[in-house]
Amino acid sequence: MCEEFWPTVQYLTKIFNEKEVTVAVLDPHPTNYFYKEFGYFNYLQLPTSLSSEEYRNVLEIGPEDSPADAPYYHSEKVVWFSSSKKWAIWGERSLGICVIGFNEAVLLDHLMKSPSKWSYLNEDVEDLIGLNFRNMTLPQDFKDSLSKNDAHDTDSE
Hints:
Low-confidence stretches: 153-157
Helix content: 25-40%
Strand order of the largest sheet: 2-1-3-4-5
Number of strands: 5
Oligomer: single chain
Mean pLDDT: 84
Number of domains: 2
Order of helices and strands: HEHEHEEEHHH
Distance between the termini: 33 Å
Largest sheet: 5 strands, antiparallel
């Protein structure tokens, strides 16, 4: 959600010459909470031309009667996806992680050169994520969920 993340999103959109990206808050629940309370979904379609500061400013805008419900302040799970649907990023605030998925292998080379530090899912990354859990260990069901679609998972190669 921070403005330092926006250049990575812009970098990804430039690869496919995309002019916008969608940011959608998934938790709190889009229908059961946000739509029920405010009459619309907490989704934003942002032009990729925004500066990092403008990106943050937009995320700080909440419902008129409830500014604390702005995405920047009140979101646990968020997705960013491109207009081309060739990539998407899922982030979970309490775990401090983002997971990117894409359907074109060419994106992997670009991603590893992007402004943000990305890494394959490996034991070191799992250990870092595990710090968020009881006994500082990543639960097996969560680990299985993360690696389910990981093309670099040694069990799937």
